[in-house]
Amino acid sequence: MTTTATQPGSAALRFLGAADTVTGSRYLITTSSARILVDCGLFQGYKVLRERNRSPFAVPPESIDAVVLTHAHLDHSGYLPALVGAGFRGHVYTSEGTASLCRIMLLDSARLLEEEARHAAKHKWSRHEHPKPLYTTADAERALERFVVVPEGEEERVADEITALLHPAGHILGAMSAYITVAGRRLCFTGDLGRDDDPLMRPPHPFEGADILVTESTYGDRTHSSAHPESQLGDVVRRTVRRNGVVLIPAFAVGRTETVLLHLSRLRERGEIPDVPIYVNSPMAISVEAVYRGHPEEHRLSAEEVRRLYDLAIPVHSIDDSKLLNLRGGPMIIISASGMLAGGRILHHLQAYAPDKRNAIVLTGYQAGGTRGARLMSGERTLRVFGRDVEVEAEVVAIDSMSAHADADGILNWMRAAPSAPDAVYVTHGEPVSADTLRLRIERELGWRARVPEHGEEVALDG
Fold first, then answer.
1. 3-class secondary structure for the chain?
2. Which residues form the Beta-Casp domain (predicted)?
3. Lowest CB count within 10 Å: 83, 127, 234, 400, which one?
């Protein structure tokens, strides 16, 4: 950890997550009279990163006055129940859409953590004699009680001499970029930026400018493929159905599942894929339908299109029904979380169907380093699941053009709307190569000062 010394009483920004990885977004702002966090996410991927979730928080949680949350994905929100369990008692300020999604996602995350701990104890695959979840359903419920909705475009006082302003970031429902004013300085945290050409979500609000910009860099070293995702998806579905196989689609329950269903719906309407059963085996994804219906201003779909998406698939609610899918066999399509094969019901389907070469696994988005999805993309064909090795004989297809993140060109184009250059740009939320590649492009193409901060680093905000 590197820390830049600040003067007593000065305002500072400390990078407690997403500084050397694409997960665990946590940014601590400190003044002489207040502390706030921007995002409070889970670390995912490599074990050395996941272990940070179990480490004591960098400052006493009870000393934090507030959290400003950019969006609901767990790498931005998923540590909140643990923070509350450790003593945080402030408010969580966010958009209405994010608050609605977190009510689904945090409770689901807690349930999965509890379920995994019970499974580990029963089958003795954990190195701990009595494995415990990172947090419980009760912790998640207490965290949700702390939420306060901030209307879009309205400045909200979140702590002593600190205000927050939220503007849409695209990406998923409720996603916002956060403009934080502290010590006379304006900071902008992009959160996860969406795409101008996303088939589901509306584009991000243009960058209004700031003294300090903290940007994501998930796709900072690449541009999205020009191949149309529907064409790629249709090809793999047709191939797999001809083999009488099963198409497994790991997909994030919020955003990606809807995008996959949208493409499958259009393919089905045009008669470009066979009429085989499509299952959505994610209670969380099923619950999100009401949120999409309640926020038509944020996405491109009509009420009729939303209805058709969810009518297309057969929802799977119970664990018993999920287990039955593993006995059914093909042809069929199963969409299930998590999108990076990090946990959830998709792992049981992986055990059942990955060893059969008739089947296919379709990766539809970014795969963070250290996840099973990343290992599959790199060519590995043996995955460790619930303490056992699973041999992957199924076809593996990656469709990165389905990502809901802006690519490097998209991020730079968003930045170009600024009325003037920031004093500093901090490039975060990306793997090291992605972050440094974007940093170099910001410096060369925009002429702005940019750098990649280290985990735990602290920088002064005043002066």
1. CCCCCCCCCCCEEEECCCCCCCCCCEEEEECCCCEEEEEECCCCCCHHHHHHHHCCCCCCHHHCCEEECCCCCHHHHCCHHHHHHCCCCCEEEECHHHHHHHHHHHHHHHHHHHHHHHHHHHHCCCCCCCCCCCCCHHHHHHHHCCEEECCCCCCEEEECCEEEEEEECCCCCCCEEEEEEECCEEEEECCCCCCCCCCCECCCCCCCCCCEEEEECCCCCCCCCCCCHHHHHHHHHHHHHHCCCEEEEECCCCCHHHHHHHHHHHHHHCCCCCCCCEEECCHHHHHCHHHHHHCHHHECCCHHHHHHHHHHCEECCCHHHHHHHHHHCCCEEEEECCCCCCCCCHHHHHHHHCCCCCCEEEECCCCCCCCHHHHHHCCCCEEEECCEEEECCCEEEECHHHCCCCCHHHHHHHHCCCCCCCCEEEEECCCHHHHHHHHHHHHHHHCCCEECCCCCCEEECCC
2. 257-376
3. 127
Quick one: residue 67, left, alpha or beta (phi over 0 = left, psi -120 to 50 = alpha)? beta
Angle, to 10 degrees, between the axis of helix 96-123 and the axis of helix 137-144?
170
The per-residue pLDDT for 1 is 41
Lookup result for tokens 């003037």: 420
Domains delineated in the chain = 12-222+404-460 (3.60.15.10), 229-402 (3.40.50.10890)
pLDDT of residue 420: 97
Judge residue 6's burial from the number of C-beta atoms within 10 Å of its C-beta, 0-12 exposed, 13-18 middle, 19 or more buried: middle
Average pLDDT over residues 378-389: 90
Instruction: Give dist(CA 326, CA 429) in Å, integer.
Output: 36
Phi and psi at residue 11, to the nearest 5°: -85, 145
Could you read off the pLDDT of 23-57 as tens digits, one per residue?
999 999 999 999 999 999 999 888 899 899 999 99
CA 9 to chain centre: 34
Tokens of 306: 């939303």
223-246 burial, b for 16+ CB within 10 Å, e for fewer? ebeeeebbebbbebbeebbeeebb
CA of 209: how far to CAs of 45, 151, 318, 460, in Å?
Answer: 33, 20, 48, 19
Mean pLDDT, the chain, as a whole number? 91
